[in-house]
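FIELD: query
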Amino acid sequence: MNSTRKDEPSSKRYYITTAIDYPNAPPHIGHALEKVAADVVARYHRLQGHDTYFSIGVDENSQHVVKAAQEHHVDLVNWTNRMEEAFRLAWSRLNISHDRWIRTTEPEHFQASQEMFRRAQQRGDIYKSIYSGWYCPNGNNFYSSEELVEGKCPDHPSIEPEWLEEENYFFALSKYSDRLLAHINDHPDFIVPANRRAEVLGMIRQGLRDFAVSRQLRPGALPWGVPVPGDEQQVIYVWFDALTNYLTAVGFPHDTATFEHYWPADAHVIGKDITRFHCLYWPAMLLSAGLPLPRQVAVHGFITLEGQRISKSAGNIIDPVELVDTYGADAVRYYLLRNLSFASDGDFSRAAFIRHYNDELANELGNLLNRVVTMISRYRGGAIPLPEVTGELEEDLRRTASETRTRAGAALERWDIGGSLNAIWSFVRRTNQYIERSEPWQLARQPEQQDRLDTVLYTAAEATRLLAVFLAPYTPSASNNILSQLGLESVENASWPQQGTWGTRPFTRVNPGPLLFPRIED
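FIELD: result
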């Protein structure tokens, strides 16, 4: 995330997007990683009290989608509707808190894409030429012979690209080489992490080539895509159209009030395989259109499945809906994010998932809440006591809470999502250690230690309450469940500054509920 001065607009509003997905097959766990990571950041900004806008959706104007519908012998419109429902269901199950769901087949997006095309034409950045090259339908990308790996697509090893040669419209990307280089050098946080920035700079040094921005309608083929303005025989190339979705989502070109409020985007969250499009094509398109560039592109790595590449075509996938229905959304979100580093790839293992669920979610967090609520119910009839005299242990835990809030927020600001969660989890463990060292079960047996017991019970409850606030971006349902069992209302916007420090919310009574994370006996 950009670090901006508090008087700048981005400190009061925050616009974040993810890449839109091809609905050529139902979503898998690899898609889920990006959506959950972006959702954590969006929720964090809402917790900060920022006017946050979060956009996701599906990229339907692709021959990849047409091919999938044909292979399944389903009408194209019915296919896209069916797949759109599958993606919506998955993100709903994972508790993704998007504000805008975009389909690139909607009329507003056609208008936005055509406006971007017209602006590039008026700038003199669109021209006609003959295109010839290797085309991979899975990524809608073109490759030179040198870029192929043993005749296969470098990003999709099972796909043999097809040779295409036709007259298309081109965008003069090479014209923007110097301006793109200057922008990236002048804005070190434009592309994060640093290794992705270095890759993009390397692409510029190798020389940027103009790219085709249209495709001919083939005789007998179903017209699919955004028509090129003034040329009904061509449709706009899916990447030129797809990238424009970030503008469509905030009202471009007709809803000027919404657009001027939210644009430029504060962050595009994308996978490492589409950096060229988002860090070179997209900024050049915006420069051509006379529009501000996004403040940041955050690039994450891939996730493998049991050490193997996730592949729809090979069937090596996990259905996130099935996983959530079995173990719950918070458990899946937690596991995906617990060690997430945007600078490297990750892996999903069912055995590791269950182990971390039991060891961390059930034993550490779930057991913490259960102990606190049970002890207050047993020793104080459910009324959460006020603290009496505090000592070194309490001061230490209070100091740890303050440090955790600072560390977790700073890590999220620099896209260290896993690091932020790990900092919070250290506080989970410190709170459990506090209870162990304070031994409230021993204090309860000693009449002269009742004031001390009140302090311990309050301190444990307050630390658990703060954990609910800090964990809210990661495990939103569990956080609200924690607060409910502590007799409090759910997390709200601006809770981080207003209720994320010690003693900022009064207690009354606990409200015992079911186990937060029942152990998996599997």
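FIELD: remark
The chain has a mean pLDDT of 92.
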